[in-house]
Write a structure and sequence with these properties.
330 residues, 2 domains, 6 helices, TATA-Binding Protein, 12-stranded antiparallel beta sheet, elongated, outer membrane lipoprotein receptor (LolB), chain A, 7-stranded antiparallel beta sheet, mainly beta
Length: 330
């Protein structure tokens, strides 16, 4: 390998090369219609007792705009809440988003409430290359020759150090970075960064001395991506066999719980549930039910199960909020 002179690189433009193209541009030669990547992050430090602590976050991400689909899998270890929420799986097909969280099981929503392909995707935004590497200025990175090939993609290889951190308050003392950029298309194919200094870790703790590493690898680019509904969600509809009005939207559901919004009148929704639940064999507990000032709560029992229906009327003429909760009777 021969190190060459410094070359000007706009990392922001490189990272933007991983933005999905719009529907209008999907058929152009330069369109980005799908991509997938893997991200591995680790932070090694010591706690107050001097014991070694390792935090890690591994992610697998895939996006497609034709057909619209997305898949995000995150596994976290050693961070706060990892025991309860250490592995999260999200998938989007059509206008439905599936999310599997330990202890909660499968949660389904519509893209009106959460769209993994748009801004506001919580996991995708937080752990995207744009966010993770936004403080790096590699405009003076050094080119490494000869050029290389990664996953069948011809790339240009550049290296950089701690001078690339564009933050005067940074407590990072040492950085070693390698970035690999596609020769045709100028998008990010691989990026490996290691650093020594003070870091907050992956759960926002008080900064402590340690070593951090990031490794990003593009695994697919403009190739068909298959997004599968998580196994835990395959029977989600059967697990939540609860009635909803015809115009229900922004639906969130998991075992024993459904919430949604409706533009149907408040009184009509009450009448709907009184009729459909009675037909299904549910018995209303009048003493535990009420309707007052735009809020209704109706309690039902059926065999060894209880059902609570709560309806809230918006004061500004907006949609009604409906929530259904089932529990096994004691």
């Amino acid at each position: 390998e021969v190190m060459e002179e410094e070359e000007s690189i706009d990392l922001g433009s490189v990272l933007q090369g991983l933005t999905l193209s719009s529907a209008d541009d999907a058929a152009t030669d330069t369109a980005v219609n799908s991509y997938a990547y893997e991200l591995i992050m680790t932070f090694n430090t010591t706690d107050e007792s001097g014991a070694e602590v390792t935090q890690s976050v591994n992610m697998s991400v895939a996006y497609s705009n034709d057909p619209p689909a997305a898949n995000i899998i995150m596994l976290a270890e050693g961070v706060d809440g990892a025991d309860e929420f250490g592995q999260i799986t999200m998938a989007q097909t059509g206008d439905t988003v599936y999310m599997v969280i330990p202890e909660l099981g499968c949660i389904t929503q519509t893209t009106a409430d959460m769209d993994l392909l748009s801004d506001g995707n919580p996991l995708g935004d937080t752990f995207s290359p744009e966010t993770l590497f936004e403080e790096f200025d590699i405009s003076e990175a050094k080119r490494v020759r000869p050029d290389e090939e990664i996953n069948g993609i011809e790339v240009e290889h550049y290296t950089f150090d701690e001078t690339a951190i564009d933050d005067p308050e940074s407590e990072v003392k040492e950085v070693n970075g390698d970035v690999y950029i596609a020769k045709d298309g100028g998008y990010l194919v691989r990026m490996v960064v290691s650093g020594i200094g003070q870091f907050e870790g992956f759960d926002g703790d008080t900064p402590s001395d340690g070593a951090v590493s990031f490794e990003y690898n593009l695994t697919s680019y403009n190739e068909p991506i298959e997004v599968l509904i998580p196994t835990e969600c395959e029977n989600a509809g059967a697990a939540v066999d609860l009635p909803m009005v015809d115009d229900a939207y922004e639906v969130t559901s998991f075992a024993g719980f459904v919430s949604y919004k409706s533009d149907i009148a408040f009184d009509e929704i009450i009448a709907f549930y009184e009729g459909v639940l009675a037909d299904a064999g549910w018995v209303k507990d009048e003493d535990a039910s009420y309707s007052f000032s735009g809020t209704a709560s109706m309690s039902y029992t059926k065999e060894q199960e209880t059902l609570t229906v709560m309806i809230s009327q918006e004061t500004d003429g907006g949609p009604q909020s409906v929530m259904l909760i089932t529990e096994e009777s004691e």
